[in-house]
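Example record

One chain of 309 residues, shown exactly as stored in the release files.
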Amino acid sequence: MTQTADRRALAALVVGACVIGLAPILARLTETGPAAAGFWRLLFAGPLLLLPALGRPGALVAGRAWLWGLGAGVLFALDLGSWHYGVFMTSVANATVLSNTTPVVVAITAWLLFRERPSRAFLLALALAIGGAIGMGLAKGSGGRGTDPLLGDAMALLAAVFYGLYFVVIRIARSRARASALMLWTTVSGAPVLLLAGLAMHERLVPTSAAGWWACVGLGVMHVSGQGSIAWALGRLPATTTSVVLLLQPIVAALLGWLVFGEPVVPLQGLFATVVLAGVVLAQRARPSEVVAGSPAGTRSSKGKWSFS
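Predicted structure tokens for this chain:
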């Protein structure tokens, strides 16, 4: 990779991580319920995802993209709904940091599925992440404006589990189908699930002002631009670089939560958040396994290891 290409990928990753950091702020500003906010996010993202897919209509069915995407969409909807409930119930900082423990969940899933014994370094990282998560939930004053901080923290952790499972499905499907097709089908199946969840929970489904509608549109644009930038950069940068840069997302979200909603990060909460993020980075670096580029998931690499990186 040339130095220029490397800088472009790094810039795209930084921009994508910062844009995604807007998500919890916009979700609260939609004036709807948590699941309903997720529904509008996917609904407004749909047309933007459809445009590139129209250029290659064959990609929508190649490799059974529709089947993988529909299944992944249900998991993504569960992730988004859980995370939005966390955002509404606890502080933006807690919800975002705790939901970013996904790499740990993915590593555990790989361990359970493929019986790859974890290293001592990974177990240490896992203990750090879990301990930090518990500390964030118990830190005095860390609940912010949330209506139920402890439940909100639990929902954010549940979101990490669903997103980890979603990531595993997408990682397997990527060896068979294009990313643009998978994202579109994920949106197609995820939006109805979130709408049904909003109806079942008797949420407010429609914004009450123009500002609420703009927040909904912003969620859709953010979903495509942020995730698209990150997806483009991930294939061009080392995993060690991406694992650190992506931690900009919870930092940006926490800063915006303070500026927009007046949710300061108390010192003890910040300390435990640092422990969680350190555990996430160490967990990713402690996984020695790699997948050969372009090889189907479930195949061993030349090093005889497994990975979902």
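Notes: Residues 3-285 form one domain.
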